[in-house]
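Q: How would the structure tokens look for this protein?
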Amino acid sequence: MIAAARALLALALLAVFYALVAAMVLLWAAFLAAALWTAGAPGVQTPPMSVITACAAFAPIVFGMVWAVIRTARPAAAREDAVTVTRRGAPELWDTVEELALDIGTRPPGHIRLTAEANASVTEDAPLLGLAPGRRVLYLGLPLLAGLSRAELRAVLAHELGHFSRRHSRFGVVAHRGAAGLVAARQAIQDAAAANDLVRLYAGGPLLLLNLYTYVFRWLTRPVRRRQELEADREAARVAGPGAVADALRSTTALDAAWQEFLAEFLAPMRRATGRIPDDPFRAFAHMVEAPELREPLAALRARAVERPADPDDAHPALATRLERLARLPAPEPGTAPLSLDPFSLDPLALRPRYAVALGRVMLPGPDAGTRVPWRDWLTELAEHRATRILPPLAEAVREVEETEGMGRKKVNPEPEPEPEPGKESGKEPVPGSVTAPATEPDALTVKRVLRLLDSGRRMPLARALNSRLPHGERMFHGERTEHDPLGPLAEALAVLIGAQLVAKGTAYWAMNWTGPSILVPPDGIAPETIRTWADTAVRLPGQTRQLGLHLAALGVDERAPLPSTDPAGGTADGPAPAGKARQISITPGITGPARRRIKAVGGLALTVLLLMTGLSLALWANSDDPSYPRVPVTRWTDRYQPGGGTGTEPAPFPTYQQPTFPARPTIPTFQLPPRSVPTIRIEPVIPRPAP
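A: Here is the predicted structure in token form.
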């Protein structure tokens, strides 16, 4: 009963909000009419410019609120960041959804759309405030298909279909529309205030009112929607089993965190550094989730997911609460095994590749997103990029130490130029005894330059220069800080430089490691840690560089050979690409196209209303009549010549001015004061009388 009362109160509050928006529109129109009427009234000295300015400032606010109400009141359009899956493209997925809908006892969705979120949801565009059935859509995140097991995927689908069976989607649509309308109206006011200074002066009051209204609406709808989530969990547990639903909830939370980590730590840095992105980022994410080194971190994420509290703005209860409710449900009877225990024929990735590729283009649209390469090639480039990102700091450190120690750009190991063989021409005659430098660039990073600094006793200056250039998060070597082991990063960089030379020769390759630097797979017969041991020994022990040179010569590595460019963007191990090809990076966010259009629309709307109202007010004010005052009538002059009174020989008489006649002056009434009454005094008694 309490939930029903809250739902009815929320619907009433939503209706009141729509009424308030309509009242605001009428009030704004009334102010416009009052301003125009005041401007045309007789006796007005100036048009009411303050009211006109306020109306112009409120125009974007009112328009934004009306547009938010219209957009949320009508059925929602299909999401632009989703890709529709047809029955022919994913028959197993459609069969599973229809089978689960039949077992739950509800009508299956009419559309299945894939999204780039680690989440699943359902919508039903029910008209008449949810009283009539509408179009049902199931949104399924492709990262879930990449990381969930078959039983967990069934549990997620059963949970979403459980919303349909309990008719949660109808109230959910209304609650979502109301919350979305309030948020959209608030966002419209904020955008208008940020785009125009005039609107900002008047946006405080409506924004405060909307914030209060949004808080009250969410306070009413949040308990109802959270109760609906618990009911959907019970429906899913009845079909798929409580254990499968609990595992699906934990895995979904862990996959959401892993997907955000994949985007922030792997996809975005690779895109910024090289400008290359995978054509199917979801299969690259599936490769990451299936990696052996991520089993323990994902298990830890599943365990810590229970500790996370519920978001105040989220309609889902806390995960601990949901798991506790699922634990109370009875276990399935032995004779009726849940569907999650049956053989499951649906492969979570049994979708045609074109869906994932199309969704990847939707997720990263436009030519500015980067160059799309096959996802397997992108993983290889990612492994090489993560392994060799320490080489540019090493090149800068070597250059700095050489300049500081005065070693400069000296030519190393000069050799006499070999004389041409008989019968072959040479473009230049050799000079006996002359020497030539090797065919390398003076500033190119080579193994020989690093070993020369180590032989000359500059290992500590080189290590300090390298450590100062490493990012804060990479100043670690096998779990220890560089302050405790300053030579560790230098040994790591030298091993990477040797590995890069082997990879360039084609005798080794980099293997992706999702929890740390990439692993070098050396030629056959050499253990992966052998090259690292060689480099560590040469860095820490003086006089061991010659032994390292012998090992490299046995592997066919030329110490003087520069590292070839492996950066598709045009950079090298020594630094970024040339100035003409450098990628422009700015820490100041630029104004996007939609933001620029929004700023122009807000300014244009306010300016249009201001100019239009000002023009109409000035026109009405200019045509208004002067005020009439009572005055004495005066006969000014009369023309004694009447038409036709003159003759042909005499000119017509000119009009003569007559003396004005005034009305008789009214007689001023005279007032007489009443006679003053003076008291009589008898003085006879006081006059002396003569004596007899």
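The radius of gyration is 44 Å.

The chain has a mean pLDDT of 74.

Upvote if useful.
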